[in-house]
Amino acid sequence: MFIDSTPRAAAAAALGLLCTGAAICASQETPPAVQTPPAYHQVTDEIGRTIRVPQNIHRIVSLAPNLTETVYALGLQDRLVGDTDYCDFPPEAQLKAKVGGAINPSLEAIAALHPDLVLVTKNLNRLETVQALAGIGIPSYATDPHTVEAIIASTERLADLLVAPDEVAFDAGVFLLRKDYAKILKKGAPVHSVPEPTPQPHPDPSPEPRPPPAAEPAATTTTLRLVGMVPPEVWNRLGTKILPKLRSGSDLRIGLEFTVTVKSDTAASLGADLQQILQELGLSDAVRVE
C-alpha cells in the first residue's frame, strides 16, 4: 500500500512560499536600534596623566580612605561600589564591597565591580596598580595634594569630574556647600551681603579743608593653638570644619599625638599594624610609633 504524495507535495510548496514571504517581510522591517556606546571625554589627573573616562560616572571604586571620605562628602556614596579594607569612615563605608588593601588591591575584585572609574592617590597607591588597571581597560584618576589649599582644590576637581554642575558638590554643614557658594567663600566674601545705605548729600555752607586721614596702625599677628582631647567619633567632622577656618591664616602646622593603653602581649602586634597603616598612608617618615 502506497501513500498518495500529491497532497504532501502541495503542502510543502505552500509552506515554502509562506517562509519565503516571512523572510521578505522581515527584511523590510526596520532593523533594531543599535545601542549607542557611552560617551567618553579626556581629563588630566593631578599627576599629569591624560585619561579617558565616561561622560557620566555611575560606578566608583576608591583605593584610599581619604578618597572614600571625599566621595561621601560629595554626596556620591550611592555611586561608590567598592573600597579598601582600611576605608572605615564614615561607618557606612564598612558596608561597601572590599577590594583588599591600598598597596596590593585585588584586580579581580575591582574588575568584578565593573567600575567606571577608580580613584587613587599618589602617596599611597602604587604605580603598578594603576598600570595593571589600565591593562584591563579600567581608567583611574590620581590625586596628589600636599597642602590644605591643595586638598580643597583637589576636592573641587573631583566634584567637577564626578558630579553635574547643578548637583550639590559638598555635604551641607561642611565648609563648601555648592560650587557657586564655594567660589564666593574661597574669595573670602560673605555669601549673603546686605548693601549699605547710600548717604544722602547735604549742603555745606562753609566748607573747610579736611585734615588728611590718620595713618592706619601696622597690622599685628597672633598665633592661635588648639589644644585638648577630642573623642574619636568627631575626628572627621572636626577636620572638615576647622581646617577651612584655619586657612584664613598662614604658617598652618598640624601635629599628631595618639595614646592608647593595651595589654603587653598585644602591644607588639598592634605596633606592627600601625606601622603598616602609616606606610600605606605615606606617613611612615613623618609619624613614628613609640
Regions with little confidence, pLDDT below 50 for 5+ residues: 1-28, 168-178, 189-197
Portion of residues in beta strands equals 5-15%
Strand tally is 7
For the biggest sheet, the summary is: 5 strands, parallel
Radius of gyration: 32 Å
> Overall mean pLDDT score?
74
The best one-word shape is: globular
Helical region count? 8
The residue fraction in helices comes out at 25-40%
What's the order of the H and E elements?
HEEEHEEHEHEHHHH
Distance separating the two termini: 106 Å
Report strand order across the widest sheet: 5-4-3-6-7
Which class of secondary structure composition applies to the elements? alpha/beta
Helix-strand layout with pairing:
Layout: H1 6-28, E1 40-44, E2 50-54, E3 60-62, H2 65-73, E4 80-83, E5 97-98, H3 107-112, E6 117-121, H4 127-135, E7 140-143, H5 148-162, H6 179-186, H7 235-246, H8 264-280
Parallel strand pairs: 3-4, 3-6, 4-5, 6-7
Antiparallel strand pairs: 1-2
In short:
This protein is an alpha/beta fold and 290 residues long.
Describe this structure in words.
This protein is α/β, with parallel strands linked by helices and 290 residues long. It is built from 8 helices and 7 strands. It has helices at 6-28, 65-73, 107-112, 127-135, 148-162, 179-186, 235-246, 264-280, and strands spanning 40-44, 50-54, 60-62, 80-83, 97-98, 117-121, 140-143. The strands form 2 sheets. Strands 5-4-3-6-7 form a 5-stranded parallel β-sheet, sandwiched between helices. The protein is globular and about 80 Å long.
